[in-house]
Automatic annotation (TrEMBL):
HhH-GPD domain sequence ranges: 49-200
Record has ATP-binding as a keyword: no
Upper lineage: Bacteria, Bacillati, Bacillota, Bacilli, Bacillales
Keyword Calcium listed: no
Protein name, per record: Adenine DNA glycosylase
Cofactor(s), names only, from the UniProt record: [4Fe-4S] cluster
Amino acid sequence: MTTNEQQDEQQEAKSYFSRNLLEWYHGQKRDLPWRRHRNPYYIWISEIMLQQTRVDTVIPYFNRFIERFPTVESLADAPEEDVLKCWEGLGYYSRARNLQHAAKQVKEEYGGQVPNDRDAVFGLKGVGPYTAGAILSIAFNRPEPAVDGNVMRVLSRYFLIEDDIAKGPTRVKMERLAAELIPEGEASHFNQALMELGALICTPKSPRCLPCPVMEHCSARLAGCETSLPVKTKAKPPRPEERLAALIEGRGGHAGRVLIRQRPSSGLLARMWELPHWPAPPAEGGASAALLPETAAQDRLRRSLLQAGIFARPEGHWMAAEHTFSHIVWTLQVYRCREEEAPALPLAAEGRALYSAAAGNGAASADAAATGAAPGATAGLADPGSASAPGPADPAAAADYAAASAAGAGDRSATSEGMYNAGLTASVPADLFADGSGPVERFADGSGTAEDAGAVRWINRSDMANYAFPNVFLKLLNAYFDEQEGGAV
Ligand code: SF4
């Protein structure tokens, strides 16, 4: 075959692909909520949610999200806690934060309208080449390619491309090819058709070639190698990390509640709420922490709790749970712990006062949510150094707080945990910190510092509605409250 004939054949394969795919899409496309409108805001939200997440999972989240934040402005102006709460369970929370950041950009720079402009859309936070292409093509019918893993799989197979799709130059090549395939005036439907084919027919493990609308000219199918494409080098597996977690059950005034803490304001799962947890020391020979002797794990956990200024005694292993990030997998060994009376410590008055105030603030936090205030803003615990932070709500604690403040006790610029630690270190055995594991160890995953961490709350089940939790803690808390209520774990 001459070069010209080869080029003609290639051109015919491209035209056939575009024509048949569009025709198939018009007859087979799924009725998805974001497809019922050409609202660029809805399309943008759906594309961000669909990253790493299945369509079936996204649908209820999408519906709730646009009901709660129907416009760019409403998203831009919402408290971040509300946005995270709406995202709770979807994972990859930086997507939600970036989305809100970008909504502010759209509100301030483009009058609340998603811009119909390539550079402007590319400039929005969290919007990469795929999402930009999807917004520009689907919402504005601009002939921009939208190439993600699904699309690269389809193109690799149909055109028998054996380049590694994990490599940047392959993506660029695919984008060029995908742009060439867009029929004039049909960018919106064509890009959605390509995504739909990858999702419904040309699936990763078992492509359904028989009903495939482009089967006749698919090079991989003709060569019988469709399941060995695309070529993709494996990403490094996430690093496993064993952690000891404390499910602290309240007593006395906190009966029926458990203690949660807020993560630092930057880094992994920033500002979300969780059960306190710390890296586990390796068991003998570097084995899993699951193999640590029970008493050794509990001793270590108690020590970490004390260092954090939390008075609680581990009472036994409750369950194990996993949380997977792209680069790390936490295995949490969760211990049930019993709240203990805070000892009278000479320097800890202010810290204890704040701790007590936080302890009683489940209801206060619910009030805060009702009035739209951030949960952490109520008790003065989240930011005791702030001029706007109110003092503790508890009268006895308030007296302690006032006395401590008047005496200038503690470091007012540190968190309450820091202050509590200051008191604690004055009276606990010196060898407690001898291994160098100071409070910073609490965030040894590199996700923030002790200085901006540490608000704690005692919550019951209904208080959970006021805080955003990563999936694993949501599941653990629900399992615990189910167990308390006699339901299934
Ligand atoms: S024929 Fe098979 S391998 Fe080729 S595009 Fe269709 S489903 Fe994918």
